[in-house]
Write a structure and sequence with these properties.
The protein contains 14 helices and 14 strands. It is of the alpha+beta class. It folds into four domains: 3-144, Beta-Lactamase (2-Layer Sandwich); 148-219; 223-345, 2-Layer Sandwich (Heat Shock Protein 90), CATH 3.30.565; 357-418, Winged helix-like DNA-binding domain superfamily/Winged helix DNA-binding domain (Arc Repressor Mutant, subunit A). A hairpin with a 3-residue loop joins strand 11 (284-291) and strand 12 (295-302). It comes from Arthrobacter oryzae.
Length: 422
């Protein structure tokens, strides 16, 4: 095809997606799809990103209200990775949507109010599907190769979401259980009304508990499931290598892994297997996982004799381990091969209050406001407690966002909690 006839806009879109950071990938995908399929908003739901499972762009009234429960319900209704048009509950009401599920990662793409950008061109959906496949793979690769700072942020955000959900569950459960007790009281003689409202409230309780369980599921992964994903990830790599790769199954009843630990563990093992396969005269590699309730224990062994703890690839893997306060040890035995042991703690380390927050250069009043934010207090309550106006509190919060390099109250809370502020 002559150069002038190449689809340059499409090629430029592909290049932009291939270079997109995770924080911008939804916006870039939306810009890439608009010439082929219009939409009011675009939402990506991916469990690969434990800290931020939603990535959104478009109409604010949609992207600010769409929930994980709605997205998970929609994904569960899709039988395969074929494009699906229909109506679904999204952002609090029924909307027309186009949904696509990525086969290997189960990531979900949703376009609201979809319409062809060119009514005479029926290829728009094909291009959108193609671009989505690039983005889904890009997300997988970015998470697999994430720097240590991403793992730390992901762990903090995951812990914060679990904490907030647990608090909401306790609050609403108490309210609903009190309501149930009142409605069951003998002082209410309208039996039919009492029965109806009791049923509705009981269902609300079940739904709330389900939401709490679902949030936990999003940030945790059974150790056996994570190990099976590792096996599937390595299958294409090992199929034609001529090397016997043995997988020793972890116990089925082991403690579930936090999402960031599961992702890091798979990336570390993939990196170790690659490094071992690049050695001459390697014929066998064995990988084994176990869990002692507090740590994920990883053991990878080979029968080569050239793996070096000083290799750059091993150094990169060790930095990932250290980002999760883990430990990596390599023992090379001439004539026997390399034995690599990795220990990854399942829980973040406890830090004394204050930690290393000195580097934030906070004024005394800003630190006071941050401590109250970390305790879950709202601006008005902080103002009353400190004896200042609510506008002054807002001023300090804006300065905190700049100094902490965060964009929302939730991110500020997660960062404060990760540094021991409560």
């Amino acid at each position: 095809m002559p150069l002038p006839d190449l689809p340059w806009p499409l090629l430029q879109s592909v290049a932009a997606l291939a270079d997109a950071p995770l924080t911008q990938i939804a916006e870039r995908l939306r810009q890439a799809t608009l010439p082929y399929l219009g939409s009011s908003a675009l939402v990506i739901f991916t469990e690969d990103c434990t800290g931020r499972p939603q990535k959104k762009a478009g109409a604010e009234e949609i992207i600010s209200r769409v929930s994980i429960v709605e997205l998970d319900t929609l994904r569960a209704a899709l039988s395969d990775d074929s494009p699906w048009y229909g109506e679904a509950e999204l952002a609090g009401r029924t909307r027309s949507v186009l949904a696509l599920k990525h086969a290997s990662s189960r990531a979900l793409l949703v376009l609201t109010d979809p319409h062809p950008a060119d009514a005479e061109n029926n290829t728009g959906l094909d291009w959108v599907t193609y671009l989505w496949s690039i983005v889904a793979r890009r997300i997988q690769e970015k998470v697999a190769d994430a720097p240590p700072s991403y793992l730390l942020e992901s762990r903090a955000a995951s812990a914060e979401r679990v904490r907030v959900t647990a608090e909401l569950t306790d609050l609403h459960s108490t309210t609903l259980e009190t309501l149930l007790a009142a409605l069951r009281s003998s002082s209410l003689d309208d039996a039919a009304a009492r029965s109806t409202v009791t049923d509705l409230t009981a269902k609300a309780l079940v739904g709330l508990r389900t939401l709490s369980d679902r949030t936990t599921d999003l940030v945790e992964e059974p150790v056996a499931t994570s190990f099976e994903r590792l096996r599937e990830d390595l299958r294409p790599l090992t199929r034609f290598s001529g090397i016997d790769v043995e997988f020793i199954e972890p116990p089925l009843n082991g403690r579930a892994l936090p999402g960031e630990v599961a992702h890091a563990a798979r990336a570390i093992v993939r990196g170790l297997v690659l490094a071992m396969m690049e050695q001459p005269n390697v014929s066998r590699i064995r990988t084994q996982w176990d869990c002692d309730g507090e740590n994920l224990l990883i053991n990878v062994r080979d029968d080569g004799d050239a793996l070096s703890a000083d290799a750059p690839s091993i150094g990169r893997l060790n930095r990932r381990v250290q980002a999760l306060t883990g430990h990596l040890q390599i023992d090379v035995m001439p004539g026997w091969g390399a034995d690599v042991i990795v220990t990854l703690p399942l829980d973040p380390p406890s830090r004394p209050a204050g930690g290393d927050i000195a580097g934030w250069n906070l004024a005394a009043r800003e630190l006071e406001v941050l401590q109250h934010l970390a305790a879950g207090k709202r601006n008005r309550t902080i103002a009353v407690t400190l004896g200042i106006s609510e506008n002054t509190v807002k001023f300090h919060v804006r300065n905190l966002f700049k100094k902490l390099d965060v964009r929302s109250r939730t991110e500020a809370l997660a960062l404060a909690h990760s540094h021991g502020l409560r």
